[in-house]
Amino acid sequence: xxxxxxxxxxxxxxxxxxxxxxxxxxxxxxxxxxxxxxxxxxxxxxxxxxxxxxxxxxxxxxxxxxxxxxxxxxxxxxxxxxxxxxxxxxxxxxxxxxxxxxxxxxxxxxxxxxxxxxx
Length: 119
Description:
The structure is a single chain. The protein has about 120 residues and is mostly helical. It is built from seven helices and no strands. The protein has helices spanning about 1-30, 30-35, 35-45, 50, 70-85, 95-100, 105-115. The longest helix is centred in the first third of the chain and has 27 residues, at about 1-30. It is globular. Residues about 1-35 have low confidence and may be disordered.
């Protein structure tokens, strides 16, 4: 049983390290981000889809606004506000701050571009 638990912890640690490296890569490789911001945003959006839906069509946790149809500037402003702790719409500030805390400015731009592309 201890070996199984240790294996699970190790697997989670490897997955978290891979995610951290991917995020670092997005932050340091400006050319890749500039070349394909929507593609990078699609990967980042994967953790958003659980609450906001595959196409941004749901109210997050039944509380937030539907984000489908937002332009990139509005999304970027909202995400930066949540990250800074200055935005708390519908009581979602704490939840969203945790979701965007590790995102770089480049990640936020890529995610905003992807959300703006949702139809």
